[in-house]
Amino acid sequence: METIKTLNNLLSRNYDAEKGFQLVAEKTKNPVLKNYFEKNSRMHNKFGHELKQEITHLGGKIDKGTSIEGDLHRGWLSVKAAVAGNTDEALIEECERGQTTALEDYQSAVNELKSNPLSSKLATHKAEIVDVVNELKTLELTA
User: Fold this and answer.
1) How far apart are CA 67 and CA 113, in angstroms?
2) Per-chain mean pLDDT for the chain
3) Can you give the three-state secondary structure of 20-75, one letter per residue?
4) What is the CATH number of the domain that holds 81?
5) Measured distance CA(105)–CA(110) in Å, rounded
6) Does pTM surpass 0.85?
7) How many domains are there within the chain?
8) Band of the pLDDT at 25, cuts 50, 70, 90?
9) How far apart are CA 47 and CA 51, in angstroms?
């Protein structure tokens, strides 16, 4: 079923984001940013649980892993952070990049499932990710 495939794609994105935010929370030395990154990791964990419930409700099989693209992004994040000296600006830029990709996937899913009752939940997730992208842009200006 195409809906399950779409939801599993979003689930992988949320696994990616959760792990990515955990990684940057470990790398920053700024306690305010650490809390912010941990909060966003928890948000994506929550989204993941909601998506898993929907997939199960639809009778689908839940994908358990992250995406290859997400794994590569986290690897790049580690390299970039090491080269840039773990600067908060570099960490914020990479978070923004990852969230922008997640936002694009959510927009595609909302468009694809617009006649499906799930589109409302996905639009709510998307709105929260938009907020995070905007917050990251603001943080980037002050880092």
Assistant:
1) 21
2) 87
3) HHHHHHHHCCCHHHHHHHHHHHHHHHHHHHHHHHHHHHCCCCCCCCCCHHHHHHHH
4) 1.20.1260.10
5) 9
6) yes
7) 1
8) very high
9) 6
**Structural contact between residues 44 and 92, judged by C-beta atoms closer than 8 angstroms:** no
Buried b (16+ CB within 10 A) or exposed e, 91-123: bbbbbbbbbebbbebbeebbeebeeeebbebbb
Q: Answer whether 95's CB lies under 8 Å from 76's CB.
A: no
DSSP string, 93-120: HHHHHHHHHHHHHHHHHHHHTTTSTHHH
Q: Which domain holds residue 136?
A: 2-142
| Nearest Cα residue to 128 out of 103, 93, 95 | 103
Question: Residue 113: pLDDT band by 50, 70, 90 thresholds?
Answer: very high
Residue 103: name the closest of 45, 42, 143, 44 by CA: 44
Query: Cβ contacts of residue 119 below 8 Å, gap of 6+?
Result: 109, 110, 113
